[in-house]
Amino acid sequence: MPLLFAQGLRKSFGETRAVDGVDFLVESEELVSLVGSNGAGKTTLVNLLSGLLVPDAGSIAFQDADITAVPVRDRIKAGIARSFQLVNLFDQLSALDNVRLAIFSRDGTTRQVLRLAERNRHAREEALEILRDFGLEDKWDTPAAGLAQGERKLLDVALAYALRPKLILLDEPTSGVGTREKGTIMDAVAQLVQARGLAAVIVEHDMDVVFTYSHRIVMMHQGKVLAEGTPEQIRADERVATALLGKA
Amino acid sequence: MDVLLAQLLNSLLYAAVLFLIAGGLSLIYGVMRIVNLAHGSLFALGAYVMAWGVSRVAGASGAEPAYLIVLLPVAAAAVGATGAVVEPLFLRPLYARAEEYQLLLTFGLLLILEDAMRYVWGATPLTVSPLWASFGSLHVLGATYPRYNVVVILLGLAAAILLWAFVFKTRFGVMLRATSQNRRMAAALGINVSAVYVQAFALGCVMAGLAGAVIVPIQGAVLGMGVDALILAFVVVVIGGLGSLEGALVGALIVGLVRTIAIQYFPELELAVLYLIAAVVLITRPAGLLGRA
Amino acid sequence: MDEAGIVLQVTNLTTYRGRAHVLRDVSLTVRGDEVVCLVGRNGAGKTTTMDSIMGLLPVRAGEIRLSGQNITRLPTHRRVQSGIGYAPEDTGVFPDLTVEENLRIALWLGNTGDGAGSDVGPAHVYELFPELRGLSGRRGFHLSGGEKKMVAIARAMMLRPSILLLDEAFEGLAPAIVKRFTEAVARIKAMGIALFIAESNIMTASRVAERLYVMDRGEISFVGTPEEAFADQGVMRIIHG
Amino acid sequence: MSSVQHSPDAALTLGTARDAHRIRPALWYTAALALLALLLPFLEGVPVIGWLASPFQRIQLTYGLVFSIAALAFNLLLGYTGLLSFGHAAFFGGAAYAAGLLVKYLHVYSMEGFLLAGLTSALVLAAVFGSVCVRYTRIFFSILTLALSQVLWALALKFFWITNGTDGLSIPTPTLLWGLVGTSGDKVRFLSFTYYYYVLVIFFVCVAVMGVIAASPFGKALQAIRDNEVRAQFVGIGVRRYRWYAFVISGAFTGVAGALFAPLNGLTTPDILHWTFSGKIVFMTVLGGFKSFIGPILGGIAYNYLETYVIKTTEYWQMLLGIILVALVLVMPRGIVGVFAWGSRREQRNR
Predict the structure, then answer these.
(1) How many domains does chain A have?
(2) How far from the centroid of its chain's Cα atoms is residue A130's Cα?
(3) What mean pLDDT comes out for the span C9-19?
(4) Taking Cα atoms as reference points, which of C90, A200, A235, A12 lies closest to residue A244?
């Protein structure tokens, strides 16, 4: 049985059907890329899966439990974490505290009112280790607002990663980053995801990246799934090329 | 019957003044998203300018209705001019910053204005009740009611209509509404947003000043009247919906009525009831009765 | 318009959004008699380019000239008066104003005429979009997506601009309506207004534009005709992904 | 693409995490100041600082410490959770009134009784107000806290047969430590010595506890909510619930300050329930600097001196406070602490 299984998802904004009857599944330890042109509905789909939006119709099951209407907090507990296309960090907190907060929250220690955060050695070490994994160890005490754009994107992913999810949803982890940096980011992210055996859904435009790392590619167009398959199948698919070129 | 009529008129009187104050507060918020804590003090400023003007022109006693006509616009304009100075000087640097700073700054302005008025006009209340008396009384349905109070009610009504016409029927009104709905787009269509802001803020101040000027013959100019008025104006806009002029009107009528009833039947709870209404409205309809979420 | 017929000239534009460096040395020109498209994916920097030209975002470095006049430091409303009309991606139609009011604002405020503007008037606009007459009393809030796009373009034209900036003019429109809009673009051009259009779909862009600028990660990576663009491996890679 | 909008004060706050290091030496200053405060009553004869040790000055400092507790507590909401309350007078005044009513109706004269009553009433009030207010943020939160606190003020004013209206409730000198320290005849001696120490100890405890709360995982969670509500949700924090916790904790400590204030002032009037008193708490906090933990402490003490000495020199002290507040917002949003940080940075640069 798949790790995540969404059926018949629909979501409209006014008259636009952003997601229009999408079936979507992710197996354990699978890396799925979500591709498609602007307005294809990729981000909306991620928002539905992560709980930021509630679908108009359809259902989402995670590890066989229905989570369609489950609030964000409980989805995170169940093991779904996400990063954001437009960086979403705790700007005044240091990089270390950003990651540490995710760890505290995961372990339920944010309830500790009368214990110094600093005294939690485990959290500190784990957070530093995660920062190291993402190449941010030198910036541990820099407030998130003071990081460069590429570092902010990495920290955003690191926050989701620190929650130790079973499934991680990454919405354009390299958008808004210079050409040179994007390879580094994707390498770091893809390696960590695979090393931990996480399942991942990555919204990405860079087809080189997509073909390199994905087990499976789902192509969306105008709110619907247009094509789906292994990188080889997608590469060979006529419809994909035309949709990307915009002939449709 | 006559008591009831007097109560009703009292409610309307109160509502008329409140509408002017709260309408200005709401207008300013609607256009520039600033909650001006000094708004009540601007209302008080209008009262002081009016009281001072009347005593200057009329001397101690010989007040005549004509003074009202002459001095009302003067007092309102003086407060509007104050607003036209305050906005570019103090508020403009804050639009890009967190909302809290605006509250803090306008709270500072409140403190300054309150003492400035004390400095200029002293701690003893200024009264111009002869002006009020000079209007005489009205006899309706066997009841006697001060004619001046009726004038204020009509003035409030006229202000509401004028304001409505101004906002919805004039060229400036269209630009004002456009700016309040989408500041960037307004600029991209050639609207000088800074100019609109100054004018909107000054207009809000004019309304507050007018309210202050018009209330003076009835209750005089007293220290602290501004702070009390601010809280009541908050109650009004919270009930009606912050940023909505119709809301300010509805809110003012509700508050006017509730207050009159409360004073009559359970005076201890007069203020508490009003604050509670505001709290209940905020909880059940966060955007107010006529506001949009 | 200066001698070379250039209406809009952008030189080495650098813009940040907050701390994010979005535009890197962007240079482009639009002549008075052409339609130019800025092509790129979401997040490539197209809207930032538009916002910078309009003065809605502060520019760190570079220069913007309109009909030869340096407008880099002018406030937005002054730029509009010098002859730019803008229809943003979200259309910016005022929701509580009627269509007529939306259009009238532009008529009051547009090009002051000291520059070389166009002399289009309401008659031209209604000729282009006759359905606007029927919508004049409707509030912006109650318009459909296509109607909003129409109002946004019509409103920008009411400013009597020498150049129109359209951000994602055809996005989210049904194919039939896209055709209607591409035809409208040709007719606007025929009225003597230059057009600069940000577009993410290269096929649509190539249908309306004589020249394309392809943008990727805040940089202009290609300039040329649509045919040249299709022949260019680099462009195709960027568009593909 | 509508990128994340950075409000320009993000740039102002860039220093926060870094300042933590720089302030390490400040720990020594703090210890020295604490020691000075402890020894103060015995330094009356010392030449340079003797004037500071006079009974009058010690009473002033006591007021300052009480305000500091309130400002610190308030800042748990403003600085740490990002909520600007204009209703903290309710908890301060509510606790003071609880002490006053205890005297009036139950004839209790024990300071611990006052503290217990004050703390309890503030807790209950904050729990109730909080459950309503934390549904909102920003301007609506401010207005709602203001409106609710005004209910209390209106009640205190109008139910004069219970509260004595504007005359207020008088609070006699209490016994301390469950009666171990009785009421002595000399009120000045009591306030400037015995009560001074009593307040000082409670002040230290409150600072320590609030300091730990601010640096605890819970405190970090509050800061996360302040910085980015949506992301806080997406690391699994129950945003509204945590705001409520913060509101209650903040209210409770403010209540402690109010209970300590009651016997110091000897009288509780509706003034300390009015929203302008809430405004004063806001002022103290901003004066000291709400972007740091110790700012409100400095602010509370500085405010009291300001009020005491400015009132003496001018009738128009409100105007002065207003001018200071406007200046703070426009040019010095980080308050007194910001000035120190700026000074030390200059010093470093000069070296």
Answers:
(1) 1
(2) 17
(3) 88
(4) A235
How many angstroms separate the CA atoms of A77 and A75, rounded? 5
State whether D286 and B112 contact (CB < 8 Å). no
Burial class (CB in 10 A: 0-12, 13-18, 19+), B141: exposed
Contact list, A110 vs chain D (CB under 8 Å):
217-218, 220-221, 237, 242
Six token digits for residue D221: 């969670």
Res B60: pLDDT: 58
Count of domains observed in chain D:
1
pLDDT of residue C43 exceeding 60: yes
Rg of chain C in Å (alpha carbons):
17
Of C75, C94, C110, the CB nearest to B178: C94
Containing domain of residue A45, as a range? Answer: 4-247
**Is the separation of the CB atoms in B130 and B63 below 8 Å?**
yes
Query: Does A149 touch chain D if contact means CB atoms closer than 8 Å?
Result: no
A82 Cβ under 8 Å from any chain D Cβ: yes
Q: How confident is the model at residue D184 (pLDDT cuts 50, 70, 90)?
A: low
Q: Tally A–C CB contacts below 8 A.
A: 56
Report pLDDT for C179. Answer: 85
B252 pLDDT exceeds 80?
yes
**How far is it, in rounded angstroms, from Cα A43 to Cα B132?**
66
The set of long-range contacts for A223-230, using a CB threshold of 8 Å and a minimum separation of 24, is A223/A17, A223/A18, A223/A19, A223/A20, A223/A21, A223/A22, A223/A40, A223/A41, A223/A44, A224/A20, A224/A21, A224/A22, A224/A41, A225/A22, A225/A23, A225/A24, A226/A36
Q: Do residues A138 and A146 touch, judged by C-beta distance below 8 A?
A: no
Paired sense of beta strands A167-171 and A199-203, if any: parallel
> B84 — phi, psi (to 5°)?
-65, -20
Residues in chain A: 248
Q: Is C97 in contact with B185 (Cβ distance < 8 A)?
A: no
* CB proximity B60 to D under 8 Å: no
Select from D3, D223, D238 the Cβ nearest to the Cβ of A92: D223
Tell me if ipTM is over 0.95.
no
| Total count of residues recorded for chain B | 293
Range of D52's domain?
8-350
Residue B271 lies in a domain: no
Q: List the 68-127 stretch of B: residues with Cβ below 8 A of D.
A: 90, 93-94, 96-101, 103-105, 107-116, 118-119
Domain of A38: which CATH number?
Answer: 3.40.50.300
Supply the pLDDT for residue D245.
97
| Lowest mean pLDDT across A4-13, A159-168, C11-20 | C11-20
Q: Has residue D216 been placed in a domain? A: yes
Which of these, A32, A44, A89, lies nearest to A224 by C-alpha position? Answer: A44
Residue D318 placed within a domain: yes
Interface test with A, best of D16, D220, D230, D241 (most A CBs within 10 A): D220
Q: How many domains does one find in chain B?
A: 1
Q: Which site among B97, B172, B185 would you substitute to test the C interface, given the most C Cβ atoms closer than 10 Å to its Cβ?
A: B185
Structure confidence at residue B1 (pLDDT): 53
Using pLDDT thresholds of 50, 70 and 90, give the confidence band for residue D17: very low
Tens of pLDDT, residue by residue over D257-270, are 999 999 999 899 99
pLDDT (tens digit per residue) in D195-242: 999 999 999 999 999 999 999 999 999 999 999 999 999 999 999 999
Inter-chain CB proximity D151 and B116 less than 8 Å: no
The CATH superfamily label for domain C33-55+75-240 reads: P-loop containing nucleotide triphosphate hydrolases (3.40.50.300)
Nearest to D235 among A92, A94, A105 (CB): A105
CB nearest to A246's CB, from C21, C42, C202: C202
Q: In what order do the strands lie in the sheet with A65-66?
A: A16-26, A4-13, A57-62, A65-66
Residue in chain C closest to D8 (alpha carbons) equals C18
